[in-house]
Known about the structure:
By secondary structure, chain A is mostly beta strands. Chain A has helices spanning 2-7, 193-202; strands spanning 13-17, 21-22, 30-39, 42-51, 59-67, 79-82, 88-95, 99-106, 114-121, 132-135, 141-148, 153-159, 168-174, 186-189, 209-219, 222-231, 236-244, 250-257, 273-282, 285-294, 300-308, 316-318, 329-336, 339-347, 358-365, 373-380, 384-391, 396-404, 408-419. Chain A has 2 helices and 29 strands. Chain B folds into 2 domains: 64-214, 6 Propeller (Neuraminidase); 241-369, no CATH class. At the A-B interface, strand 15 of A face strand 4, strand 8, strand 9 and strand 29 of B.
Amino acid sequence: MLLLSASLASAAEIGEAGREFTLADPVSGMQRLPVSAYAGGVYLVAWQEGHYGWGPPADTDIRGVLVPEAGRVAGAGSFVISAAPDFQERPAIATDGDLFLVVWQDLRNGKDYDVYAARVTRQGKLLDPAGIEVAKAPNNQCSPAVSFDGKNFVVVWMDDRELVQSYQIRAARVSVKGELLDPAGAVVASFDAKKLGSLLEAGVFTGISSNANPRIACRAGECLVGWLQKTTENLDQPRYLYLATASGLAPVGKIFTMAKNPATDPGYGDRARNVSLSVAGNDKGYLSLYSGTQGKGNKEYFIAGTGFAGGDKEPVPVAVKPLKAGYKLSESVASWRDGFAAVWAEGDRQDVNKPVRFTLRAAALNGGDPVKVQEIVPWQEPYLGAPFVTFGAGRALLVYEAGDPKNGMRIVGRELKTRDGTP
Amino acid sequence: MNGSARSHRLPGLILLLCSLLLACTIAVAAEGAGRGFRVEHAAGVWQDGYLDGPAQGAMFSGNSLAEDGAGNLFVMDITRVRVITRQGRVWTVAGNGVRGFRDGPADEAMFNIGGRGYEYCNIGVDGTGRIFVPDGHNNRIRMTSRKPDGSWWVQTLAGGGTKRLQPGQKGKSLEIYLKEPVSLAVDARGNVWTQASSCLYKITPDGETFAYQNPAGNVVYMQADGVGNVYLLVRQDWASHYWKVTPDGVAQRMAGLTEAEVNLLKKAKQPLPVDGPALGSTFFAHATFGVSADGAALYGGSGDENVPRRVMDGSTMSLFAEGWRKEENNRRAGLNIGGPALVARDGSLYLVSTNPPRFLKFRRLVPSN
Lengths: 423, 369
């Protein structure tokens, strides 16, 4: 475990979860994809809410709610962060410790996705009601993520403004005053345009890659960007790049893949399908989790981890208990001052002929092995998914999607206690 | 179809073998290389995933196709029904992205497609724009339709019950048991056809289901033309063949080799022809499947040979003279065509380049089927 494991050798554990509580009654439809951040005694939780469909009344908005402490919602209840026309989806949040920046993908022009952002104060005041245009180029700019580098917010997203059916990863900084500092967006990852052109001209459709699901975690003047590089051979592999952000956005070193240990690392073989990825950072380094399927028929599910010490240091593997029997999962990783915690959703069977029960599990990842995995929400029907955990002062807030008889899906929360090593 | 050779009257148990192998030799050269099509990209990118919005940048994971007659294409995308509109935007019509079962408002609905070892299906759309999905793991046929207020609604059309129909029997559609349907077709009268267990089922618009003896075997895709015929793609191991069921219930194999015929050719060390007489002569591997509205042309092939082909007047012909299979650094290349195909009302052929799903339109350049 090298440098990272040594530096993360505290003995934190995830404790028991508190009682489930409702964050906000749905206003306009299903609630999906919750995210949260913590600043100065309050969590901001944001999600997408609304209806899909072909034509009216299809419309989704970004809504949020302040949670002063887990289990209690601020009196004002939920509020609109963006209710522009058409779809606002897939929010992400970061904080500078004083205010929050929420980013999302936005179809308000009715034609293609752009990336918008808005600042929200710790009192729940929306500072940019029309939204900040972070990326508004031809074609799609979508699936954003955001972090704070000590001076500015850094946003990453998928972008297909330049290539034929292939997405780039781009990044831009947004100041705490809401100014867009990199209007063109710096290219983080891209397939070679010249090579793509020659392959298409020759009618050869192998070896083409595209980039998806960017995530970012920043420390002072430095960020780690992670994403999934997808190829036409179905080789979906995590990729990582350090960015220096003190003055502009500059790549540092080369693009890394996940820690290379094919004998023991799940997700490394050429049959693996890595379907999601998350990153988090703290004073000691970065941790990325990725999950997917592998093996015969791609039916063996796993979660794996890769650690980074920062600077331009090579990745190192981090032990995460592989999941071999579950039916479905989605994961996220969060950090506190000197530790990390992973949460994920898990189904109890792959036999989809019968109802699937779901649970949420968690593990504190401090570089130790074996990793202690804990069940934090009992097995239940209906659906549980998209868990997202954020550490506050001595406690953590877990938010997730839960099946709802009336609205299909709603966002709920639980307090998550920690033992030892608490922030 | 002049190439019909083996027939079966439905309902009934007797397979009528006619063996009318006609030596139809359509002049392949008449259409030349390119065969009168121009290939256009309709939707999808070089990666799988889920993203609506402009079709050119949308992401898909599933590959089934159906058309509503107004130029809108529907895709069953694993857990969601999605549409590629004629204007080039992709929307999610139904499904919340989670496997399961739930009827009701479309965006809250849950599907669980697949069965019999397959994790995909082919879907159908009727003349009024209702979308039908064989929901295999839920043992049902599901219907997605638009309400007067513009919202979409998912309901069970058939299955979910316990009554097991035998060939020749009928029952209330919501009372019958359908075991893992993965294919369906909507005929010109609005009947939904599907296959499960050893039966073909006709589900009528007034809520009744009729069971017929399945003459063909393992039906993996079904299609219908606009004049009342239903077509079956039957897979035996790695040999595929096509059947046609006429409105009066006559089933006839019309193209492809059975597994037994393939084995005979291989034993005799004969090649497996790609083009030529359609029935009992040309070979289809893991085939795709589309039928023209007038029933005159069937599009199949691709799969291992990776060449879309047309069956018409008893003969099979590649749409591209050299195929689209190419090699780079000893790796398999080409379009990797697979899954259901679609012949749109305007005569355009849609095929899916799989892994990742990209939808390709073969626009007709000259009057042709």
